[in-house]
Specification:
Strand content: under 5%
Order of helices and strands: HHHHHHHHHH
Shape: elongated
Number of strands: 0
Distance between the termini: 47 Å
Structural class: mainly alpha
Helix content: over 70%
């Protein structure tokens, strides 16, 4: 285990035992068996230990979006959002500890909100460019980016609270509903939505049929 990982592990243990405000950097370094210099090489401040992978996730999202084509833009948005969910799922109990901390410590809650806004700006910028980058598409891109982040966070919070036993399936349904909000047909015009799902197609089609209306969904 690297020194950085030992520091993260020690910090989360201490935050759980003593609380965030009652834990100092010295407490963390002592528990991890490293010096203060090592801590500040890895993190700028104590709160950075709570969000050690934020920049990595931003980079992963940006890479997934930039690798898409106009025809696969909506799929890229869905898969980029899925990367964040999968990261939290892989963290397991550490993610739940973070959730409890950000729910109870105002400074950490503010930091988390700022992080979510960064994700949303990435999606908004990408969607705005995909839609044409005009003044007329700015609001639509803002609304869609907000909807994507809201749907993701809804599923993530349910899992963090122990309310979701199949979070990735819930995510698939949430993203399908979100995309449908922006791709419904008008009159005789129709839209084609393509997305990846791990859910059984036979189970998913009735949900999409209900969302989009009779005759709008074909397998």
């Amino acid at each position: 285990m690297s020194a950085k990982e030992r520091l993260i592990e020690a910090a989360f243990e201490l935050f759980g035992e003593r609380g965030y405000d009652q834990t100092t950097v010295d407490d963390i370094t002592e528990r991890a068996g490293v010096g203060r210099t090592t801590f500040f090489r890895a993190f700028r401040a104590k709160e950075d230990v709570i969000f050690p992978d934020h920049e990595v996730l931003l980079g992963a999202i940006e890479a997934r979006l930039s690798g898409s084509t106009p025809r696969t833009a909506l799929l890229a948005v869905t898969e980029a959002s899925r990367l964040v969910l999968q990261h939290y799922l892989a963290e397991g109990e550490r993610a739940r500890t973070r959730y409890r901390l950000t729910s109870s410590v105002p400074a950490l809650r503010d930091r988390e909100i700022a992080g979510v806004q960064q994700y949303q700006r990435l999606f908004r910028g990408f969607l705005h460019r995909w839609m044409g980058g005009t003044a007329e598409t700015a609001l639509r891109a803002e609304l869609m980016a907000g909807a994507v982040v809201t749907a993701h966070n809804h599923v993530l919070r349910r899992w963090l609270r122990g309310q979701a036993s199949a979070p990735e399936q819930e995510f698939d349904a949430a993203m399908a509903e979100t995309v449908a909000l922006f791709t419904r047909s008008d009159g005789d015009e129709s839209s084609l939505v393509v997305f990846r799902t791990t859910k059984d197609l036979g189970a998913l089609l009735p949900e999409l049929q209900e969302l989009l209306g009779p005759g709008d969904v074909k397998s």
